[in-house]
Amino acid sequence: MIARRSATAFVVIALVAAFGACETKERAKGLEDEVVVVADSSVFSETEEALRQVFEQTIITPQEEKLFKIIESDFRGFNHFKEHKSVVMVGALDMESDLTSFLKSTLDSGALAQIREESGAVIVRKDVWAREQAAIFIVAPTVAELEFKILQNADRLLYAVQKASDERLLATIYNPKYENKAIQGHLLKEYGWTIFAQLDFRLAMDRPEDNFVWLRRGVNTDAERWVFVHWIENGTPAYFNLDSVVALRNRVTEKFYRTSDNRYYVEIADEALTSREANFNERYALFTQGLWRMTDRYMGGPFVNYIFIDEKTGRLYMLDGSIFAPKYTKRNLIHQIDVMLQSWRGEYELSEGRKETLLEAAKEFVPNE
């Protein structure tokens, strides 16, 4: 989603407890932008700054919003939060506390030895106390070593929480009752790829001669969402830098994102623009986020953008999502559009049954007037 996205694998250490079968647990609770940190008060005071640096990153939408918000809890309040969507336990083995006792009883002897030998570890588990939950254990021999371990694993920690949040959101919006199979089938039939679209999305522009597709939702409302897909045949890695992304996106939006009188168009604003490497469905990608604006400065908002090469077809794809919602906080809206972009799939990634369903639905596609 928003501050993305390391492809590095996690250091995973086995936990002793099986925690029960996943299907017997309740679904994880709480807000998507909350991360519960369970720690003794003295440990939290020593690690708070590092934890907030990792999870409470500021995003510009163009208002300042937090990527995630930390909720502090000691071990006495753990039962209240144990089924939360994102739980981070932080503990030092040399302390005498209920939390430390819990961690020692949960980790096997080999894991404890490895923690002492390597001055700590980050342990990531799914569905520990609830389904669709991300549970992270940050453990070190001493309190002094915890802060270093948190900062050393900053990208991994953020990735774990974001990935689980993306998966939950995708499971929520990817509902067969609400998907626009006709549009998805049309894209699959004509271009060999598809992307999830809810029923209220419409195909605003379909330009095969320009390798460009534009999907819109909430047209002329106070919460518009725009998604475009643009591709270049025989793409090269030369585009994998911020200057090239800016140039390509501006070229596309200048041509297609224009006012009705054709006087003004969308461009990238100079401020709050960032780019980093990403893992896009097991493909190397560049993820860019920032702000867009009309050239008359009358309107603007946040956008997220992926660029990657699909090795099966040789195409370089740019997938882009924008929000215009001046009356609302936009953190959750941009998260939704980010997850929609991640639903992109090439034809070869779909099951035969899924392809048959979408291609049958394509017969019902009616182009916009």
Provide an overview of this structure.
The protein is an alpha+beta fold and 369 residues long. 31% of the residues lie in helices and 28% in strands. The protein has 10 helices and 17 strands. The strands form 4 sheets. Strands 9, 10, 11, 12, 13, 14, 15 and 16 form an 8-stranded antiparallel beta sheet that branches. A hairpin with a 7-residue loop joins β6 (121-126) and β7 (134-140). α1 packs parallel to α5 (143-152).
Structure keywords:
369 residues; alpha+beta; Chitobiase, domain 2; Protein Transport Mog1p, Chain A; 2 domains; eight-stranded antiparallel β-sheet; 10 helices
Helical coverage, percent range: 25-40%
Quantity of strands, as a count: 17
Basic shape: elongated
| Number of helical stretches of at least 4 residues | 10
Low-confidence stretches: 4-21
Helices and strands, in N-to-C order? EHEEEHEHHEEHHHEEEEHEEEEEHEH
The total domain count is: 2
**CATH topology type of the largest domain:** Protein Transport Mog1p, Chain A
Kindly provide the name of the CATH class of the largest domain. Alpha Beta
What is the correct CATH architecture of the largest domain? Answer: 3-Layer(aba) Sandwich
Q: Major sheet: size, sense and barrel closure?
A: 8 strands, antiparallel
Distance between the termini: 34 Å
- Name the CATH homologous superfamily of the largest domain: Mog1/PsbP, alpha/beta/alpha sandwich
